[in-house]
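Lecture notes, structural biology module. Today: joint structure prediction for complexes of two components.
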Amino acid sequence: MHNPSQQNYIQQLSIDCVIFGYHDKQLKVLIPKLNFNGDFWAVPGGFVYQDEDIDKAADRILQERTGITEIYLEQFHVFGKAARNSQKFIDRLISLNPDMLGDELIVKAEYEWFARRFVSIGYYALVDINKVIPQKIDLDDSVEWYNIKDLPEMIIDHNEIVIKALETLRLNLDEKLIAFNLLPETFTMREVQELYETIFDKPFARNNFQKMILDLDVLERLEKKFTGAANKAPYLYRFRK
Amino acid sequence: MHNPSQQNYIQQLSIDCVIFGYHDKQLKVLIPKLNFNGDFWAVPGGFVYQDEDIDKAADRILQERTGITEIYLEQFHVFGKAARNSQKFIDRLISLNPDMLGDELIVKAEYEWFARRFVSIGYYALVDINKVIPQKIDLDDSVEWYNIKDLPEMIIDHNEIVIKALETLRLNLDEKLIAFNLLPETFTMREVQELYETIFDKPFARNNFQKMILDLDVLERLEKKFTGAANKAPYLYRFRK
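The predicted structure, tokenised, for the full assembly:
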């Protein structure tokens, strides 16, 4: 809620971003907590300037919290129920933070602007978690990675937005070969399998999985990974773009 | 452009629908031609009422031109470039239809409303072409099925919208088992294959194709189709929902 010059934005349109990272057999989502009384969490979001492409707006919003550019990013769903608005959230925010009302942040016009029905374009992003240093913006108390199985309760419909993003990620995984965006530059076949098992939340048979991935014909085999035990060392692979 | 009570709609947000039908080995798109001088074609579109779900708005827009409800319908992409507006189209429309300016339709406020940048949510619909009787609304000169390989040149970015819808249809075809929405109630395996060949614009090997479709385990085999030549008669199938 950083003082949007309201006329510079498209009205009643927002962008919400689900940023996925992967680490240690856990699929994670980057979630800021707002710097107000009341424990408010929300996925990174924002509005679209009149002279800005929506994809650029999503880039900007992602960059604010991750510090990185050139992220794999994709629209996945528009959340557009008539009843979709922030009224409850804002009312609760004000009731727990009554000093806001004396603040220029929440003047009547702004309240009305924010509390209207918003259509929100959902984007999901896939990042190499090692490359992201979570960044706070003015409004944030913290910005942290949460295991997708253990998310905080977020404002408005943001928990549903994450669930829908995960469904889409699963659907797109093979078609679009995007899982490799979640891995570091080089990886073992076992690491790929663990990633898929985490995303789908189920085990795969090792031989079949390996064949399926190699059949995609998108990996380049590199030297063996140094483990100290030469004969058991697994090969490293790299995604061939 | 039927006199939108502008304050009843969400500003700068539109919906555009690509309605696919299939007939005689041709994938077709239902396209209205506007009732003005100048040969203007556009996919069926409209705006979203303040108190209307976006999916409901898409239903309404589809029903206007097809006369049917309960259509398979899916959001596929949001078109949101900053430069996306109707200015060129409207200017050309007015220049070829100067009497419009004397009309209450195009008063200055309406011009400004329509000529602004719009973010458009694209939906595609799959219909059984036999069930649709194309319907004209006030603005239409005609509403006809066009072969996707022979589309008229449409306004704004509507040709791109159709191309993107086709790409998404191809991506989703297997994952979501939606092709059967384009077929009549019962069909032969050959008809399914012809449909897939048309959508992908390439041939499939008969045995592999048949195996792939049967492996989906979504078809129910019925009696043989009556052709007069009993021993060569193909089986009929039905999609099991």
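Point to remember: The CA atoms of residues 36 and 118 of chain A lie 22 Å apart.
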